[in-house]
Design goal:
The chain is mainly α. It is built from 9 helices and no strands.
Length: 221
Amino acid sequence: MTLLQALVLAIVQGLTELFPVSSLGHAVLIPALLHWNLDERSELFLPFLTMLHFGTLVALFCFFWRDWLAIFTGAIGLHGATRREEAIRILVLLVVATIPVVIFGAAFEHRLKVIFGTPIAVALFLFLNGFILLVTEWMRSYKGRRPQRAIADMSAKDALVIGLWQCLALFPGISRSGSTINAGLVCGLNHETAARFSLLMAQPAVLAATVHEPGSSVIWM
């Protein structure tokens, strides 16, 4: 991979990261569409994509550091008993939501890695991702607007359902943020709460993937 190619993929990652369109799926398709002489089955390609997502982790942490500070200082009781209970509950919800993707990713890691070298499969997953977004939005509009709920008001079942939907993003082309926000909407959350929980749970997931082994897995946005 040349420096210019790496820069193009980094720009694509940055442009698509904030939208539920699978930045990873686009990163896999771009080399094929531009006819780059690049082996996407190489052992170095997936680690490179992983590090792109680590950059996303840094950006998310810079944005959410106040939330994490409030959660951890609340959990150790610096803001009173009520805040402590809420903070611990949020941490438990994040753990519950992260467990499914860790188990599923570890169990099917080697089979999933094959898809990263198959642009046609990734393109099909991108179409599927768009279809899921349309259906979920239709369901939300059909049921009407949801009342405002805080993350601390979520149940463990809500977190588990969202965590299971996150497993769809193990397939490149299915957006992690799109899947988890959709799951939140299905669970009765409004857009704001669903998006905030999705972005919070992205950070431990991406960190776990990066620490596990750069070449073994990625949690896709």
